[in-house]
Structure formats: structure tokens, C-alpha cells
Amino acid sequence: MAIPSPKTLKYQIPFYQHNYAASSSFIVSIPNKPFRCRISLSTLRSVAAKHVDVATLGNLCIDIVLNVPQLPPPSLHQRKAFMDNLASSPPHKKYWEAGGNCNMAIAAARLGLGCVSIGHVGNEIYGRFLSEVLRDEGISLVGMTNDADVLNSSSASHETLLCWVLVDPLQRHGFCSRADFSKEPAFHWMSELTREVKTSIKNSKVLCCNGYGFDELSPGLLHSAVEYAVEVGTSIFFDPGPRGKSLSTGTPEEQKAFNQFLAMSDVLLLTSDEAESLTGISDPIPAGQALLKRGIRTKWVIIKMGPRGSILITASSIACAPAFKVNVIDTVGCGDSFVAAIAYGFIHNMPMVNTLAIANAVGAATAMGCGAGRNVARLAKVVDILRSSNLNEDDEFWTDILQKNVGAHEITCLSNVVNGNRNNINHVPYDKIASQLLPRLEFPRIVENVPT
């Protein structure tokens, strides 16, 4: 049977109004973007069939948190000697914690999302520890190789990645891992996505990646993962993190993969400093808008403003939400937890300001604990923070930053102080948002407390 010719379809036209053969495909044109792609009906069906909420890709590691008299020296050679000395006698298990993308996965699972962690863990005590932690949190682990020699290897290049989190007497943090001392990614021997990895990406609504993934996986492999996620209709979240600036000026392969993430991700998440480093624009809203315009599939750009709060930027609107006032103990893992809650709002199609509110609450709940991994936000603490309605409001700061961007965009700001429209900014009362968020979170909280 002859394959029907592709039909050009503007994205505004709903797909379901047409009745084409199973072999049909469409060419989707995106207005004002130099991009066209062919989408098959099988791809559209796969979007509807996804039964996993979130998959994380790479950046699975164990944080070993130690108090040290002083942080590692700046010299690379001296840092390597410092780390080798630490590794010569493995510390007690009480200092181990799941780290990297595990933070995001654990926070997401505690919000009730179904999660899969895709990555490499070795066949040693650290790998078994990490596998057990994820399993106990209800998170599936999908390895990235089927090579029996690798799976049974004791080679250092196949071992679980360790990140030494070092804390000095002034509570300053230093980080080092073996990835810091190699020009190649830690798992550079991985060359292609396995069938199991592809299945996990295809079955997931969201694929979460971050800049630290480049420390482990080759740019070519990451490029393949993005291409495949787009092909099967999986939304991509990308948080460049501190690696963003160096990746943007890295090797040609790194730049290609990094620019593909910026162009093809549905959601970009950055701090205001990271956004400035990539755009040269200090004002977070224009910086976010520049990233949005640079993207092809980008729907949301989210700027994390630390203790100030967060901003969500789309092509037609801006939403902002002040952070919550809490007793901050440790900020490690706050950004990862924040991403998990953004994924929650995105998957559940929540209003933007609601999504920011829950993300700020989850980040704040994590900051009240010590360390990341199993210490990230628990649902009960998130609910308590949302109930407190204790926003860190700075009306002058938000008015200043938003007033400069009043124009063609609809602007919404969460507030306890101001209600209604003022200076062309729609202030949404916090009580209204809390009344919408709390009911959907409190039922899982009851389930969480049922004895097993």
C-alpha cells in the first residue's frame, strides 16, 4: 500500500479532527521559528500512552558529606591528592547520601509522581546503596548498558560516581569528584541508548536533564536522548546549572548538544546569574525572554531568584511568586526539589502562579533539612509551609522588576499584601492559591501515613 504524502499542518489545528491512515504523518510548522518536523500518528498515540510521570537522565551519584578543617585547595593537582586521600579509606555509611538527579526524583516521588531514574551505577557497595535508596522511595532504576563485562567490572571507570561534599567550620561547601579530573565524561564508554533506556524515555511524560549530565555522559549520547525524546513526544526539562557557561564555550560537540538542549527543551530552569551568563542580560525577565526566543520548543523559562522567589516566563505572560520565610539549615538539593515541583505543576496543567507557589514551598521544605537525597522535602512539611502563608514579600523589589516589563505581557504576581490589579500587574491573593493547592496535596499525605 502506498504511503500517503505528508500533509502540512499548522499547530493551531487540533489533530483529532482528522481521520488519517495509521501510516500517515504530518509536517508541523511552527510560526516564527525556523523549524519543521515530521510527526507520525504512532508518535501522537505514544504521547497519550505514557504511564510514567518523570524520568531523570544521568547524574546519579552518591554524596559523601564530611566536615573538614579546610576546603580543598584550588590547584587541580592538589585537589586530586586531597580527594585520593579521602577515598583511601571509605567513610562510614552514615555519611553517604543519594545525590545528583536522585534529589529531583525523590522529591518528585514524594509529591506522588511516578519516577524512573536512568543512569549508571556500579556493581559495588556504593551502587547497591544507591539502588536500595531509590527502590525504598518507589523509584525505578534503569541502567544504561547491557554489557555483562561492564556490569560485572571492578574497573574504576565503571564504578558509581562519588561526589565529596566537604563542609568547613564556617559551613562553606566544597565539591569534588573524579569527573573533575578527566577531560572525558566519567562514562565516556557509553555510545548509544539501549532499548530499555529508549522505552523509559518513551513511556515518560517528562525527561529531566541537567548540566552535570555532561560530566558523565558523552555529548553525542545526550544529543541522541534529546532527539529521541522529541521523536516520541516526551517533554524535556533542562537545568544547565553552574556548568552552563562552560558548556556554551566548550568543545564543538559540547556546544552542539548544549545548544540542542536550549532549543528543544520544553522547560528551561536557571538561576538569575546563570541566565545572565548565557545571555549577557542582568535583568532576569528580559534574559528569560531571550532564552525563550532562542528556543524552538520552549514553553516555559523559569528563573530561580533564591530567597526572593521565582519567575515563570512564557511567550505571552509572566508569573512571579515570592519565596517562603523559613529557618534555612542547608540549601543543598533545594534547586533539584524545586524542579520536581515544577514538573508536578507542568504535568497536572496547573496555573503558572500555582506551580511557582508549590515549587517555592518544596524548595523551602528542603532548605529546612540537612543535606539532600533522603533529606529533601517530605509532603507533610510542604503542606505545613503552604498552610503558614508566610511569604517573604518585598513589594518594592517585585514592583521594580515587573514594572520595567509591563507591556504586551500579562503579568501575575502572588501576594499576601496586595489584591487585584495595580500598575497593570494582577496580584493574586495567596489564600486563593493555597485553597487550590492544599486539597490536592493532603490526600496523598494521608496515604503516606498509612502503615504497611
UniProtKB/TrEMBL annotation:
Top-level taxon: Eukaryota
Organism in which the protein naturally occurs: Lupinus luteus
InterPro entries the record matches: PfkB_dom, Ribokinase-like
Pfam family, one: PfkB
Carbohydrate kinase PfkB domain ranges (all copies): 59-369
UniProt-listed SUPFAM superfamilies: Ribokinase-like
Protein's name according to its UniProt entry: Carbohydrate kinase PfkB domain-containing protein
